[in-house]
Amino acid sequence: MGTNAEQSRADTRDAAQRYADWRSEREASVASATGNLALVETRWYPVGTAIPTDDLRTDDDDVTITTLRRVDLDTGLPQEGLRRWDAHSPAIAAFAGIDAYSYDPDWVVAGRYTPLDADHTVAFEHLRDNGRTRDLAVPGRIDVEIGGAEYALHAFDDDGTLLLVFADPTNGAETYGAGRFLFVQRDADSYAAAGGVTLDFNRAFVPPCGFSDQYNCPFPPPSNRLSVPVRAGEKTPLFTAAASDAASAGH
């Protein structure tokens, strides 16, 4: 039987390897045929207008077209849109990886999730909304101590997973300027149940708008602005100098 110290070192090595695997998967994902780097167009149609059938067609095997919906901020009504993805976009051709910090077990932080009212929302400003906000469903509060300070964080419901949008003093100097994203690991499956959460900041990642200016990413609300530098996770996308103008949208 090994000592507790030996087991701790082994656990750290395993976690560091999982982190390395995650980084490789991330780089492959953003450069895939419908990954963040492939998005070359987001087009919104006037409220009440259906997407023309011809706009949904493509004769290029490298191009994928998908549809999406949002609420129009002026009318409050649904609005239809499409996205065009190019498997050989200039950004993919220029992509040189994602700069990131080395794995640090000290940045795996435990917190507590407390459910809020079922219809609770928080206003998030978005990149392409000219300072206006969109209300996103925030099913619970995350109480956590980070760097000696107590925070009550708000993560929104991203298709059944809590997504934390946060800012810290590294933004703009060492990491992506608008903040970073982090999926919250929860002990309980139901949003209605209180329980422990884990914030593994080693898995903090550059938001989609760091790879393409065709995304409309949310900015961190005031509650999610940390005072301590979070030197963990992804920093910024890297692009080759020869194609930087085409590939550095949002970088």
Topology summary:
Layout: H1 4-30, E1 39-44, E2 63-71, E3 78-86, H2 90-94, E4 95-100, E5 108-115, E6 121-125, E7 133-137, E8 140-146, E9 149-154, E10 156-158, E11 161-166, E12 180-183, E13 185-186, E14 195-200, E15 234-239, H3 244-247
Antiparallel strand pairs: 1-3, 2-3, 4-15, 5-8, 5-14, 6-7, 8-9, 10-11, 11-12, 13-14
**Largest sheet: spatial strand order:** 9-8-5-14-13
Percent of residues in helices: 10-25%
Topology as a string of helices (H) and strands (E): HEEEHEEEEEEEEEEEEH
Averaging pLDDT over every residue, what do you get? 94
Structural class: alpha+beta
How many angstroms separate the termini?
49 Å
Beta strand %? 35-45%
| Poorly predicted residue ranges | 246-251
Number of strands: 15
Q: Radius of gyration, Cα only, in angstroms? A: 20 Å
Helical region count? 3
Number of domain modules: 2
Shape annotation: globular
How would a textbook summarize the main sheet? 5 strands, antiparallel
